[in-house]
Amino acid sequence: MVTNLSVKHSLLTNWISELRNTDVQTDRMRFRRNLERIGEVIAYEISKTLPWEEKDIQTPLGIHSSKVLKEQPVLATILRAGLPLHQGVLNYFDKADNAFISAYRKHRRDGSFEINLEYLSAASLEGRILIICDPMLATGASLAAALQALLSDSGKPSQIHIV
Amino acid sequence: MVTNLSVKHSLLTNWISELRNTDVQTDRMRFRRNLERIGEVIAYEISKTLPWEEKDIQTPLGIHSSKVLKEQPVLATILRAGLPLHQGVLNYFDKADNAFISAYRKHRRDGSFEINLEYLSAASLEGRILIICDPMLATGASLAAALQALLSDSGKPSQIHIV
Amino acid sequence: MVTNLSVKHSLLTNWISELRNTDVQTDRMRFRRNLERIGEVIAYEISKTLPWEEKDIQTPLGIHSSKVLKEQPVLATILRAGLPLHQGVLNYFDKADNAFISAYRKHRRDGSFEINLEYLSAASLEGRILIICDPMLATGASLAAALQALLSDSGKPSQIHIV
Amino acid sequence: MVTNLSVKHSLLTNWISELRNTDVQTDRMRFRRNLERIGEVIAYEISKTLPWEEKDIQTPLGIHSSKVLKEQPVLATILRAGLPLHQGVLNYFDKADNAFISAYRKHRRDGSFEINLEYLSAASLEGRILIICDPMLATGASLAAALQALLSDSGKPSQIHIV
Questions:
Q1: How far apart are CA B140 and CA C149, in angstroms?
Q2: Interface test with A, best of D27, D36, D75, D80 (most A CBs within 10 A)
Q3: How far is D108 from chain C (nearest CA, A)?
Q4: Is the pTM of this model over 0.80?
């Protein structure tokens, strides 16, 4: 299921517009902050689709039954472009586990290079909810490679969300 | 139109649950951060209903037509409980104007008191989109008084959103 | 004792320079963020002068004696200009108590006005460390009035820091 | 020159104490926020030693000569433990360039492994001020290896600060 959040107007479309605007791009603080905020609202939108459970909590007015997140997701990011977006998702899922995929160019002597992927994380993904951050999606080839590497290394997630 | 965001499960219900939880309430950083995050997602949800316009922006790949917020809202807060919520709304509407309503108890010699309201802002509200933050809603009496004071002082807004 | 932090060059002087710069002032996000960061480093500098105590804490490697803040300060702010500065100080003293002083103009029918001060806080200041935020210091008259109001209402602090 | 900021008591020692405390470590939001704040005050302390220059800026009250940072540093981080610390330093040096060093274990079939380092950055370090974040300093072997890799790849910095 593909959800295109930029179809409907909201602050998200405003921030994406600022990201693209050459007059605003030069302000690195605002550029990072926009990516972070986009990560935050995407985290919020994803959270609407996640499983929840009833839990009794102690409030000042007595025991109250409350709906809370059933499990914490794993946030995986393709370094290094994904970091501010990852930070935004993490701002909202503050108890999530983290995984990092390092994609780098390995240069050969003749000047050509290949994309190498390294997975930097101890967490198992088996049965977990996986959220992958990759704001630099072009052909999707490196995302596909990263996803394949993650799954072969770390088990089969129950859900995968691509941001 | 009343939108009850806590009906549908999302991170918002999770944060509200933490706000009520006596075990979590004692952590003031998390308490404020939860109010801030609630303000942020409410700002995002409100933004879906605001008027937008097409604007041409210069991108690295040429001129691009983009949907941007048509006008900036005014954020009004009933001090002092509303501050972290206001901060959250302001995190997202970072170009908004601000208005503060100071509600305080004026004590008389016999120990009784009345609620005094003072409006601390230069901004006119005439024709503006007004967002009022008041997380301490009980009977709504002080909110109603604050709203009345705002409107008689500063003009008639085009829209009012109560958070 | 007056500490003029802007004499020695640091990031602080850089941020103050941006606050004054008419080209940068129009970016409200950066303007607030600069006031916040100034509040943070001032909080850090003040913390060097505060009383501390030894406390045993449980670490993964055993019991460790650690120096921790002896008591939490009260942060008082003159509304509403002081809010971003207050937010910065609070970012660092995240367990502090808060007090707000509302200064507003009470207009008379002839167009003249007087400054009214209202103190919005339940916290007693007796024997506490008080940090007052007021970035709009001109003659100091309203600061003096605010301080006087605070002290007569809420007891005598052990230390007063003016930011 | 080694500066041990934890000798003198300040908020920094308080945050380090919380990082070590097994009761507080489980709160990931506070743990990350403490690393971030430590990065912020270290950035501020480093900034006191950096070169500055006089620059005329336009203020609302006329032209004002102001001391500003002479050049922006490059922030290099050893992934992935250094990220929250890096974020903190970046919060303060918001115009800095970034470099990431990815250290990962390359497993052999017999179960042994070696540490591989990959440098993820386009920025040249030649003549730049380099700030390296590595909060997981144990023997310093990986820091030394990372530093060596950086210098052979990307030129000779004018200053190196290790955080």
A1: 30
A2: D80
A3: 31
A4: yes
> Are C57 and D17 a contacting pair at CB < 8 A?
yes
- Any C CB within 8 A of B136 CB: no
DSSP-assigned letters across all residues of B1-41: ----TTSS-SHHHHHHHHHH-HHHHT-HHHHHHHHHHHHHH
Place of tokens 């003198």: D8
Looking at the predicted structure, is the pLDDT value of residue A113 above 90? Answer: no
CA-CA distance, A124 to A121, in Å (whole number)?
A: 8
d(CA D77, CA D86): 6
Q: What is the share, in percent, of chain D residues with pLDDT greater than 90?
A: 36
Partner A contacted by D95 (CB < 8 A)? yes
SS3 D149: helix
Q: Which of C60, C53, C97, C75 is nearest to C160 (CA)?
A: C75
Is there a contact between C5 and C51 (Cβ–Cβ < 8 Å)? no
**Considering only alpha carbons, which residue of chain D is nearest residue C16?**
D66
Q: Do residues D87 and A87 make contact, with C-beta atoms less than 8 angstroms apart? A: yes
What is the per-residue pLDDT across C87-144, written as a single tens digit (0 to 9) for each?
Answer: 999 999 999 998 887 766 666 778 776 666 665 565 688 899 999 887 765 566 777 7
Nearest CB to C11; choose among D10, D22, D47: D47
Torsion of CA D14, D20, D24, D25, to 10 degrees: 130
The Cα of A29 is separated from the nearest Cα of chain C by a number of Å equal to 8
Per the rule left: phi > 0, alpha: psi between -120 and 50, beta: everything else, B57 is beta
Q: Do D116 and A116 touch (CB under 8 A)?
A: no
Mean pLDDT of B5-14: 78
State how far residue C27 is from chain A, nearest Cα, in angstroms: 10
pLDDT of B28 over the 70 cut: yes
Give per-residue pLDDT as tens, A83-103.
889 999 999 999 999 888 776
CA-nearest residue of chain B to C119?
B104
Q: What is the pLDDT of residue C48?
A: 92
Beta carbons of A118 and D95 less than 8 Å apart: no
Q: Could you tell me the sign of the dihedral formed by the alpha carbons of C58, C63, C69, C71, in that order? A: positive
- pLDDT in the model for residue D99: 83
Which of B147 and D123 is assigned the larger pLDDT?
B147
Q: What is the pLDDT of residue A78?
A: 78
How far is residue C90's CA from residue B7's CA, in Å, rounded to a whole number? Answer: 33
β-pairing verdict for B129-133 and B74-79? parallel
Cα A121 from Cα A137, distance rounded (Å):
22
- Using a CB-CB cut-off of 8 Å, the residues of chain D touching C131 are none
| Residue A2: count of CB within 10 angstroms of its CB | 4
Yes or no, beta carbons of D55 and C21 under 8 Å apart? no
Tokens of A12: 């998200």
**In terms of pLDDT, which residue wins out, B59 or D138?**
B59
DSSP secondary-structure letter at B80?
T
Q: Which chains have at least 3 CB atom pairs separated by less than 8 Å from chain C?
A: A, B, D
Cβ-defined contact of A120 to D102 (cutoff 8 Å): yes
The pLDDT confidence band at residue C9, using thresholds 50, 70 and 90, is: confident
**pLDDT tens track for D100-138:** 877 666 667 777 766 666 655 656 888 999 998 877 655
- C95 shares contact with chain B (CB less than 8 Å): yes
Determine whether the interchain pair A30/C29 forms a contact, defined as Cβ–Cβ distance below 8 Å: yes
Residue identified by tokens 């004002």 is: D64
